[in-house]
Design a protein that fits this description.
Layout lengths: L4 H4 L1 H22 L2 H21 L5 H11 L7 H9 L15 E2 L6 H30 L5 H28 L4 E2 L1 H21 L4 H22 L2 H5 L4 H14 L13 H15 L2 H33 L5 H14 L1 H11 L3 H29 L3 H11 L3 H11 L1 H15 L1 H17 L9 H7 L3 H19 L1 H35 L2 H4 L7 H28 L1 H6 L1
Antiparallel strand pairs: 1-2
Length: 562
């Protein structure tokens, strides 16, 4: 009996797993802290409205109520704390890696304790002075501008002292924890989820689960090394370590055969991107999407056609199918586009291997070199993310490179790459029609909407669905309750952490899958390599130019809002 594509396709399983994790967490929060949080927040919001009506400036009571409102978070609820612990990662450490997993609460140094007490006294004094100034303004019914200005200045001075106190006090806080049991539980839970999905995709449950443990442990080591304080200071985080550790293992001792069933790079990254949809609200997608469409949908076809023409007219590559496969691989989105285009133009398996090999080599180089170059020359984070999203081939590598630059760059890069991924179906359709009518000249073209749908990356539907659902929930809850329930609840305690782990697993899988000795032959043979280099050079230049024009000249207001 033929299995439904809903249960036998990786893209759909990425949607099922990602949706299960998000929706179950959302349900837990609504059944748990929602009612209490709503009551507290409604009370604080009412108090803020009264203070706004009472005085022409923000009073002491306004600031104290606002502080209490901002401290009302779902992450402080027992459920929030449980989810945060359940998705935890190694803590920052300097010289002893054990403290990344286990730490006992200690008293702060005596000198720091003295500083905290001194600053607390200053806060209390400035609070008292602000109270006196505000009382004088109140006695004049806030009609004396001089007294109002004095009160505002005193209150601002109190706020400055309070922020400084918070900064010192937060540094002194050291809580005890034991992360190892939680991390082991997370490993078993994720292994179980993906092993079930992989079983439907043709893998044996036990073989996948055993390999997954290996991949997870390498990812845990990557997180540990990335949490070292000096590494964090220079921006060398878990993503770089995950890839480097994977490459080191693959190109020295070799990736064990029993691990390879769990090297599901795209499966992990697609699931992570579905979860990312909850963090990128629809308004942001539509905002990024407007300039992103120009970056992805105009540059990509231009680069594809130009590179193919260059291969035929200048390099005179004898195989048109090889030329087209390499051109699509480089200009669209790597392996997925290469596979779709190879099928559309009927390229040979060997030609597809050459295209994929070149893509893997340059992807592994670009995802490390591009962020380093962007940081070294001072390219803005959003522009850098757009440049990465439009040029690096694989979705997983795009996310890895974007993560090097920051959260904004990651969001922009991932969104533009997914906008670009939508072109897979259209490109495959166009290539099929072109080869059937112009190259093969069969006159029998049977490519339609079914073929486009077949090539369409379905996981994007999960990303968009998560974004739409969470956007609607965010709007319906209102800013403060949404911030507490979503930003500091589902996202702050769960989705960001679980997404980080999934991306880490994907980066480890990338490294463990690449053996430079096996791919060395793709640097020889001349013309395919030259084609890729020249096409990518054009892609880099046009994408950077288009991204700058769209994000900084045509739509600067969108860039400012990201």
């Amino acid at each position: 009996m033929r299995k439904s594509t809903l249960l036998s396709t990786e893209d759909y399983w990425a949607i099922w797993i990602g949706s299960f994790l998000l929706l179950s967490t959302l349900l837990f929060f609504f059944l748990g802290p929602y009612a209490d949080l709503k009551e507290e927040i409604d009370s604080y919001e009412g108090a803020l409205l009264l203070e706004n009506e009472r005085a022409p400036f923000r009073t002491i009571e306004w600031y104290e109520t606002s502080r209490a409102l901002s401290d009302t978070k779902a992450s402080s609820h027992p459920l929030g704390k449980f989810l945060k612990n359940a998705t935890t990662k190694p803590a920052t450490w300097k010289t002893n890696p054990v403290v990344a997993f286990y730490r006992i609460e200690t008293e702060p140094p005596q000198s720091l304790t003295a500083d905290i007490q001194e600053k607390r006294d200053m806060v209390e004094q400035s609070r008292e002075e602000a109270g006196i100034a505000q009382e004088l303004a109140t006695q004049e019914d806030f009609k004396n501008d001089g007294l109002n200005q004095s009160a505002m200045a005193a209150i601002e001075e109190w706020q400055v002292e309070l922020r400084e106190y918070d900064s010192i006090n937060n540094k002194a806080r050291t809580s005890s924890f034991n992360k190892l049991p939680w991390i082991i539980g997370l490993m078993l839970f994720l292994g179980f989820c993906f092993a079930i999905g992989s079983t439907f995709l043709g893998q044996r449950f036990g073989r996948f689960f055993k390999g997954f443990i290996y991949v997870f442990l390498v990812g845990l080591l990557a997180y540990l090394l990335g949490a070292q304080s000096n590494m964090k200071a220079i921006g060398f985080g878990y993503a770089a370590w995950a890839i480097l550790l994977g490459l080191l293992i693959s190109n020295t001792m070799g990736t064990p055969q029993w691990v390879k069933p769990a090297l599901s790079t795209e499966f992990y990254i697609k699931t992570g991107l579905v979860i990312l949809g909850a963090e990128i609200l629809l308004s942001k997608i539509l905002a990024i999407g407007l300039p992103g469409i120009f970056v992805a949908w105009i540059v990509t076809p231009v680069v594809l056609v130009t590179t193919y023409w260059f291969g035929q007219k200048i390099l005179k590559i004898s195989s048109k199918t090889l030329n087209m496969t390499v051109s699509a691989d480089m200009s669209v989105c790597g392996v997925s586009a290469a596979v779709a285009t190879a099928a559309a133009c009927k390229a040979t398996k060997e030609e597809l291997t050459v295209a994929i090999g070149l893509s893997m080599i340059f992807t592994s180089v670009m995802m490390i070199v591009m962020p380093a170059f962007i940081n070294s020359v001072g390219i803005p984070e959003i522009l850098g993310g757009a440049w990465i999203g439009g040029t690096i081939d694989a979705t997983g590598a795009v996310v890895a490179a974007g993560a090097f630059l920051g959260e904004k760059a990651l969001s922009v890069a991932a969104t533009i790459k997914m906008i670009q991924n939508v072109l897979i179906g259209a490109i495959a359709f166009g290539v099929a029609v072109y080869f059937a009518t112009r190259v093969e000249k069969t006159g029998d073209v049977r490519v339609g909407k079914d073929e486009i749908w077949k090539r369409f990356p379905k996981f994007i539907l999960g990303f968009l669905g998560a974004s739409i659902i969470f956007s609607l929930i965010y709007v319906s809850l209102g800013n403060h309750l949404a911030y507490s329930m979503i930003d500091q609840g589902v996202i702050g305690t769960f989705s960001k952490n679980i997404r980080g782990w999934l991306f880490c697993l994907a980066f480890v899988s990338i490294g463990l899958s690449i053996n430079f000795a096996d791919l060395r032959s793709h640097f020889t043979g001349g013309k395919p390599l030259i084609l890729y280099l020249c096409g990518q050079a054009l892609n880099l230049c046009l994408t950077l130019l288009m991204a700058y024009i769209m994000f900084y000249l045509v739509f600067p207001q969108i860039t400012a809002s990201i």
